[in-house]
Please model this.
Amino acid sequence: MKERKLRIGMIGAGGISGTHCQGWTKLDDCELVAITDINPSASAHRAQEFSIPSVEASAEKLIARKDIDAVDIVVPNHYHRTYAIAAMNSGKHVLCEKPLALTCKDVLAMIAAGEKNRVKLMAAQHMRYQDDTLAMKDYITNNPPGDIYYARAWYNRRRQLPCRAGFMYMKNSGGGCCIDVGVHILDTAMYLMDNFEPVSVSGISLLKLARRSDAWSEWGTIDKQNIDVEDFAAGMVRFANGAALSLECSFMLNQKSRATHKIDLFGTEAGISWPKCEIYSSMNNRFVDTRIEYLTGYPAHHAVIRAFAEAVMGNTDVPVPPHQSLKVIAILEGLYKSQKTGKEVSLAKRDKPVRKGKHITVSPARPAAGNIALRVSPPRARQDRTRNRPSAG
Ligand SMILES: NC(=O)c1ccc[n+]([C@@H]2O[C@H](COP(=O)([O-])OP(=O)(O)OC[C@H]3O[C@@H](n4cnc5c(N)ncnc54)[C@H](O)[C@@H]3O)[C@@H](O)[C@H]2O)c1
Model:
């Protein structure tokens, strides 16, 4: 059997696609073979920048190609479900930018398509691969902080609203800061808590500042007339084990800091603070505070791509299981519903609980193109020590 590289097609050539292209082109065993965008000049530009051999006229044409093993979806949220399901029905593995989809119904349909076609599906939750998250997760796994009964997850920006069509209008994004950055911080917090069993959420999502005549953003010009997504959201999540999590996220908030990304976990044995990587405990009536130092490694956006590629090539479970993404989306969808109803929303009936400690297998995968084995590299050493981490958004 002939060995060859994993062949990738990318749908979308906007802001984050450049970072994804960098991630793919670092991988010796992978090659970006095609790209498409509804804006042909954007895809042509990316193709030239990263020597991608072909620019397809449409996502449908790219998905129909027989020589592509996996599709990377980096378009506005509203299109994730459609392209992901089409790609999986065409036998392709799918890496999709966050949020995986906008509703539980959509995520469940995507998971079903992955299972039916025996291909892998994963949301690119890159914050799980930040050095601080890796260090914290490693510490918590080896030194459990006891029963984590409360958590705070904040992703608040002062005046950083992304002023692109994919973020300002509900018809493209399906929401504002809650679905955009809320999905990052919630996924990371639940990953660190190792708790993907939310049972209810109560919250608010508000458009308070972005339509004001004096509104402004460090990241472009706000379409004040037409923006229709929330610029602030907050909520309280309850979990099956009795724990609770408070979530805050904003594109615009009158706070001192330009941006606050923070997770606090409170356990019976210790407290954990991310991204400071501090641990607070006590011994013999004295406080014991510890701080983890970590090396700067592979950029998180590239590491999540590498992890997906390794799961496909090694035919192992994807490291961001779509059933976990389902739970995160259930909370965000529930929070929006809570804003509308003014009530706490039960999440119990939306899907089945994830078995703790088990990753859901979506494959076994098959080589997408005929009798060709994909080359599998041994696990890579942490080699790239750059600090140049692209910002989340
Ligand atoms: N992980 C992160 O930190 C991060 C950061 C930014 C964006 N994202 C996510 O990536 C996705 C894309 O965001 P972005 O910042 O690149 O947005 P963007 O607006 O910069 O680019 C989106 C691109 O998609 C193209 N497009 C729009 N509709 C399309 C369609 N139907 N078919 C094909 N192409 C289409 C647009 O022409 C544009 O080039 C979003 O889901 C967003 O949430 C993630």
Q: What stands out?
A: Confidence is low (pLDDT under 50) at residues 353-392. Residues 316 and 364 are 8 Å apart (CA to CA).
